[in-house]
Amino acid sequence: MTSPLGAGAGSAHKCSWLFPLGPLSGLVLGATLAFAFRADGPKRETLMVKALTKPFINAVARRVLVGRSCSTFEAEKGRFSRRDVNRILRRTWRNFDAMAVDIPPEQVLGARINLRLACATAAAYRALLAENTDEAEARRLTADVVWAIYHRMGRVAWTMSRAFAHDPARRLRISTGIARRFPFGPPSYLMEDVDDPVAVAFDVRRCPIAEYFAATGLPELCVDTWCNQDYALAEMWGARLQRSVTMAGGADRCDFRWKPMTHAGELASTAGGDDAQAN
Q1: CA spacing 20 to 30 A to 156: which of 18, 31, 75, 185?
Q2: pTM listed for this prediction
Q3: Strands, DSSP E only, in the chain?
């Protein structure tokens, strides 16, 4: 897969892609971080996560949403303009500020960051609904924005794995291991390894993200915008994901079975492949 930076991109371009700040945004970021350090506990973390991610999320959302159809079934609603998307983003961050006060505490930093990103996901979804976007379309658009961010995070683990192994199966095990340490680490996330001769297999028994979306009454949003991203992530990592149930879908576990592409043919007749719907 080619880099989104394009061939021969310079270091300045790389920095702007990873963290697209102009001079004014940089001043706002600095002021926000200064205020955050004076806040207490969870509020400080919320302010810092927002300050560090908002410019990047906004830039990604504009790239994903501008020009997209406002509705799959009502063509007369037209497409989102840049002005529309800027309005949606302003509403998103107002929603986030109102919702963040109810984010539950967690023991580890990775889970606390994830919960704030989940809050931003729910805030964006509600901002799209406020634009009279139907629920299914709003979930799809939100999922596309989340994937544009999530795949960059996944690429970090896959790139790191190359330093330790070249065998695809070994790299897959390393990549999933990195993710299981941060940001999906214990004790906030509880996972049990499962013996499997050809797959990286484990069951997730506790997921703060699934709990958060269930508490906010948005379990379907969790499945569409977080859970289902794992199928595309598996492809990026040279694998196929087989998963029959999720906690967001009402089960007592998420049964992850990551199979390297060399064994992917075994999944052809099983549920849980690319086109499977999480239960």
Answers
A1: 31
A2: 0.81
A3: 190-193, 200-206, 239-242, 254-260
